[in-house]
Specification:
Length: 113
């Protein structure tokens, strides 16, 4: 995926909840030209951890209903044109949001590590 000029200007580090992080992912998606969810799933390629990057999974993450896995964040940001060096802030924010979640939410079947 070619890198997009605007992709590096979004700062997700201010997010502290899953929904706030999802809002930043949606903004990134919009900056990438709002590529269809099907195209994003295709660009992401096959998963390493067995969780498919289906349109449904992407939709749930973008709606803030699901904390994305680290692999999801890596592939989603890549598919949206974020340079490899720019992914660190997205991954760090994802990890911080995951650690801030209540124990009950972390134990949920949707909570991914």
């Amino acid at each position: 995926m070619p890198q997009r000029e605007n992709a590096g200007r979004i700062d997700p580090s201010v997010a502290s909840t899953v929904r706030e992080f999802a809002a930043h992912l949606r903004r990134l998606h919009a900056e990438a030209g709002e590529v269809s969810l099907r195209k994003l799933a295709e660009r992401a390629g096959p998963p390493r951890d067995g969780v498919p990057f289906s349109k449904t999974t992407i939709s749930e993450v973008l709606a803030g209903n699901r904390l994305p896995s680290r692999e999801f964040v890596e592939k989603f940001t890549d598919a949206c044109g974020v340079a490899e060096g720019g992914r660190a802030v997205w991954l760090a924010t994802r990890d911080r949001v995951a650690s801030n979640r209540p124990a009950r939410a972390r134990a949920s079947r949707w909570a991914r590590r």
